[in-house]
Every structure is written in structure tokens, then in C-alpha cells.
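Ticket reopened. Same input as before:
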Amino acid sequence: MFEESAVIRWRKYTDRYRLIGNACKACGETYYPAKEQCPCGGKEFAAQQFSGKGRLLTFTEVKAAPEVFESKTPYVIGIVKLDEGPKVGAQICDANAGDLKIGQRVEAVFRKFYASGETGVLHYGTKFRPVF
Amino acid sequence: MVERKVAVIGVGITRFGEVWEKGLRQLLAEAELQALADARINPEKVDMIFTGNMCGGEFAGQEHLGGMASSILNLNVASTRVEGACASGSLAFRQGLMAIESGRADMVLVNGVEKMTDVSTEHVTTGLMGAGDEEWEGFQGFTFPGLYALMAKAYMNKFGLSRKQLAAVAVKNHFHGARNPIAQYRKEITLDDVYKSMMVAEPLTLLDCSPITDGAASVVLCNAETAKQYCEAPVYVAGSGQASDTLALAERSELHHVKATRLAKTQAFAQAKITVKDLDLVEVHDCFTIAEIMAMEDLGLCGNGKAGRLVEQGQTYFDGKTPVNTSGGLKACGHPVGATGVKQVVEVVQQLQGKAGKRQVKGAEIGVTHNVGGSGATVVVNVFKRGLP
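Engineering reply: fixed in the latest deploy. New output:
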């Protein structure tokens, strides 16, 4: 991945940090992340808040990571199907890979991702943790 | 409708591997000059150049490879770099194909090149992640082995693939690599070697993954009507297809196969008027062992969930019923990302010309290449024939 400036993070406040996507006004289909054009042809959307609750579709433990995540290895990544419909890729936290199962219930949490090079600025985002 | 047919009349390829003595330009020059010599033409015959490359800027500080490819040959003709992650080489090939089909050019040089070993492994991992979705995969800490591991787990959950079946892909590709003089790993391995190698992203170990590789490959394409003037055994492009899917893996409707492969294959096979039964060999995009399993099914070589058994039974060796990746694939031949799509064409052409030495598929007449960008957002499938289609 690519090292981000403060402006990039500011631009991503709604989708990255608040789990806000959108819903097509024509067919009602919900999207996270937000879409620009609906497959139904719709171009008008309303903001949609997602609950952050969902189910784990697949997961793995990453042992060799890109530069900024190197100190965090091993960590678990997965694909979550949100209860409202959309699927999203994210890190799965607060659990070892061995304790997780496909189909497992998960919920979104706001977490620290990594610290930027020399400035040490912290980057935050959304991860998911299992609900046992 | 396609009016003009296209033939491959020359191929060139460098050694694949850690080529410390050569930089990006030297690799590209070696492949270009070899291909022109093989086609027995001077550079002045070339009307257009397309060069596939993914990370020239990131790994070698060099963008603008169109300019580099033409400079090497002292030409002023149109020269363009094409990028589509690991499918960059095939995209360059398709640009060349369409340039001749359309009548815009009669003779095209297609290159693929990547110089990867001048930077650290972590830097390569970071750069390659540019093939994924930066916000929804890169920022989240995803890696390519990680993405394919997610697909492997989804596939295993659906069809029940065994560890042995997955490892057998790597063992077979190393067997072929050992018989390919330009391969990065000219060394056979055992199932045990795969099981015991370092875990990268469960279930994929280091030997389930393609390596970091330097290399370049080039092919000369020309209007099929004039091909025999330059080459005794031209190989013809019988069909070509390209399809796309969502950039992020999570957005796809299914995670256990690659939809864009199915779409590109349908186009290419229809244009070539062939079915899967006509194929003598296929070069597929095995960036990870699971990718070869999915490719076999997506290309229709077997039914869904059946590829593991075919591999385990040895049917995909060069002398088996369905030879897959006789070059050694990305796994053993190496994966210089921008060069891979063109390397696949070189391998199929050499096979159809009977020049594949110890890994030669007897009497091969029809071969297919399959090249994937990222986790499946871009796929190209090409069909080649020994005789005029």
C-alpha cells in the first residue's frame, strides 16, 4: 500500500471511519463502499449507515506483509458479508486464526492501523472482531 | 468483425530469475533483439511497438517504457506502454493484435518486461498490492498471497480440495521448470518440500507462491498473409478474449472462481471456433497454486471442484492428457509481472513449432494462454494454432 497524507485521510472520514455507504434510490440496493452508478441504471443515491454486523465468508493469516504492516505480522484478514448485504475486506482482530470459523458472526470496531514513517502519525480504520 | 488474421513470426525471451547483471533496459533490449532476429527482420520493418509493464516506476524508477522500447531500436514509430497489473503483457499483445487486425499496422513488436530484484521483498509486496483496490484491500493490510488464500479457503469450503492436490500443482510446475532452459527454478521439488516450506498465508506456503523475478519476453506479430515470407512455421492467432470484473475481490458474487476468465474464454474459443476438447496445451496464470486449480475449471478443462483430482493423477504433465504450464508456469519459470503474458505466448509458439525440447507436447497444434491481472479484475485468453485458422 501507499503512504497517505493528512488530506487523503480527511477525504475518507465518512466511508472509512463511519461505515457510511449508499443506497440506490431507484431499486433500494445498498452499497458499502458507496457506488457511483447502480447496475439497475440508477444514478441517484441516499447515504446509508451500516450496522457493522455481519458474517465471516473467508479468512487467512498473513505472515508476510507490505512495509507498513510488517511489524504487525501475523494478522488475520477476511471478507465480511454485512447483514445489510454488501461484502467488505478487512482485518479481523481480537482473535487468533485458529479460533475463527467460516460463517462466524463478526462486528465492526474502530482501530489503529499503523504509524507513518518519521512523523509517527497514526492511521486508523475499521476492523472486525468475532462475536462469540 | 475481424477482417485480417495475425501470425506470430518471431519470439525472444531472456533468462528468468535474479538477473543481477541486467537492468530494465538491458532485459528489454535482449528480448526485442532476439525476437527481431528470430523473425529475420530489421527494426525498420516494425510499424508499432507495445510494451507491457506494471511497476517500472516503483521498482526501477523508470516510467515511459514506450520511449525506451523504441530508443533501443533507434526507431521513431508509435511506441506505447500498456499496464494492467500482472496481465500487462497480454494487454500489450492484444493491442498489437488489434493494430494489425484493424489495418493500422502490418508488423508489430510486442514486449513484456519487469525488473523486480533491485528492491526489497517488502517493497515488491507493497508495489504489487497496487494491483488490488488501494482503499479496500491495500490500506487494510491485504497482500496478494492473502487474497489468493482467501479464495483458496472459499474454494476448499465449497469443494473440499486437499493439501496434497494443491501441492501437486507446484511439484508438477517445478518438474516442467527443470526442463525449461530459461526458467528461474530448474529444479524438481517434492510434496514434502511444499508442506515444509514457510507458511505465507494459510493454506499457501512459500512453494505455493510464484517468486520475484526479473525477465523480458518479446514477440513479432504480422499480417498473416505475409507471414510465410519471414517464417517457415508461423503460429496463427485464432482467437482472443478479454474481460473485467470488480477491482476488489470482496465485491464479486463468488470467491471460488474467476468470472472474468470464463467470459474471456468464451470470447476467445468462439472466435477460434474450438471447444476445450481441441486443446493440446494451456499456459495458465498460476501466481499461486490455487490460481491454477481455478483456471483449469474456469477454462472448462474439467468440471467445478474436479481440478485437484486431475492434477493429483498426473494428467496435467507435458505428456499427460491435458498439459498445463509446460514452461513451469509462473511458479517455476518465474513471474516478472509485466513479462508473464508475453512469456506465455513464447511458450505456446515454441510448443506449436516443435521447439520445446525436453518438455515438448507431441504433435501440439492448438494452444491457449490465460493471463490474470490482480485477483481477477482483468483477464486475457488467447488461442493459437499451427495452421492458418
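Chain A touches chain B at residues 1-2, 4, 12, 16, 33, 57-70, 72, 75, 77-79, 86-91, 97, 102, 113, 123, 125 (CB under 8 Å). Chain A has two helices and eight strands. Please confirm and we'll close it.
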